[in-house]
Amino acid sequence: MDTTQLLKGVLDLAVLAVLREEDGYGYDILRRLRSAGLEEVGDASVYGTLRRLFQAGMLTTYVVPSEAGPHRKYYALNAAGRTQLSASSKVWRGFAQTMDQLIGETA
């Protein structure tokens, strides 16, 4: 199965989940996703998702100066993002449970 297709459907949820506990800048978020097991997630996909979630009003941003390079744009989950994370998590759990049942029947 091509996991890149699965990632497209859940990347919003994964990014929101990564930002639940701690704000992060683009590369940091990408690194955290990969460390969590989503090794195949692409740079452009994550940056595009961050822009889209910000434009949809689910994230806020702020800039932190850096002495060792360019300033970093941090993303933070806001109230709308937390609401979306909760709703999407419920949908995901229901979907995953259904798939587990289907797979169990054929295994």
TrEMBL record:
Q: Where is the Transcription regulator PadR N-terminal domain?
A: 15-86
Q: Which domain of life is it from?
A: Bacteria
Do you know which InterPro entries this protein is assigned to? Metal_resp_DNA-bind_regulator, Tscrpt_reg_PadR_N, WH-like_DNA-bd_sf, WH_DNA-bd_sf
One of this protein's Pfam families, by short name?
A: PadR
* SUPFAM superfamilies from the UniProt entry: Winged helix' DNA-binding domain
Q: Which PANTHER family match?
A: PADR-FAMILY TRANSCRIPTIONAL REGULATOR, TRANSCRIPTIONAL REGULATOR, PADR FAMILY
* This protein's name: PadR family transcriptional regulator
Naturally occurring in which organism (per UniProt): Dactylosporangium roseum
Upper taxonomic lineage? Bacteria, Bacillati, Actinomycetota, Actinomycetes, Micromonosporales
